[in-house]
Design goal:
By secondary structure, the protein is mainly α. α3 packs parallel to α5 and α5 runs antiparallel to α6. It is globular and about 50 Å long. It has a 3-stranded mixed β-sheet with strand order 1-3-2, with helices on one face. It has one domain.
Length: 231
């Protein structure tokens, strides 16, 4: 009942009262469109961090704002997409979603609590791309989304980022030059964060993912097209 109440509360804040969202507790947190029943399905894992629930609602909110449903809904060719690239892509979209929520003071407080909790954890992702996802998300989140109280979590943020950098450089072989290019691309989020054109997000996504060098640019371009289908 607690989470149902939170769901209804934040639906109202985001102007989603009339949107049909089926909510269920799960071992994961995700949003997707149910074609059969013409409604959204919100699966929620109870981690004790409310922002994860708000964030999934944010995907619906942002997709409506951008008039592009695939910022919340999986594309038709989802099963043809490389899942490592999909996770990286999701992190990019998540950052734009989180920025769109940052205009709501009450949600900003929950976002701060989320970052504070994350930065206090020991990092132990199972896969290399999890480090990259975290690096993307938290560089953008701390520098370009979080508005207040940065000084309260700055030390933990710096420690968290440095641990990820160490792993990516010493275990996985990314070089200083690679991160200079990645950081430059992440910096461009600052100019794009208020875009009203999903194709600008698509371009940002491609230009960032190609710097990770998981696949060649031709194949990456094909994958990006699957992630951003034309309406």
């Amino acid at each position: 009942m607690k989470f149902q109440n939170s769901l209804q509360y934040y639906k109202k804040i985001l102007g989603l009262e009339d949107i049909d969202i089926h909510f269920k507790l799960s071992n994961d947190t995700a949003i997707d469109w149910d074609d059969k029943n013409s409604r959204w399905i919100l699966e929620y894992q109870d981690t004790g961090i409310l922002f994860t629930l708000i964030h999934e609602l944010g995907h619906i909110f942002y997709s409506q704002k951008m008039n592009y449903i695939y910022l919340a809904k999986k594309p038709q060719q989802y099963n043809s997409i490389n899942m490592v690239l999909w996770d990286l892509h999701n992190t990019v979209v998540d950052s734009f979603v989180n920025y769109s929520l940052s205009n709501y003071n009450e949600i900003c407080k929950e976002y701060f609590e989320y970052l504070d909790a994350v930065f206090k954890r020991d990092i132990n992702p199972a896969h290399y791309h999890s480090y990259i996802c975290g690096y993307f998300e938290f560089i953008i989140g701390f520098n370009y989304i979080l508005k207040d109280q940065k000084e309260k979590i700055e030390l933990n943020y710096n420690s968290f980022i440095n641990k990820m950098l160490f792993e990516m450089q010493n275990v996985y072989g990314l070089k200083k030059e690679d991160f200079e290019l990645i950081n430059k691309q992440l910096l461009s989020f600052k100019k794009l964060k208020t875009t009203k054109n999903y194709k600008e997000i698509k371009s940002f996504d491609f230009n960032l993912l190609k710097l990770v060098k998981l696949i060649d640019n031709t194949r990456l371009s094909s994958q990006i097209e699957l992630m951003y289908p034309e309406l």
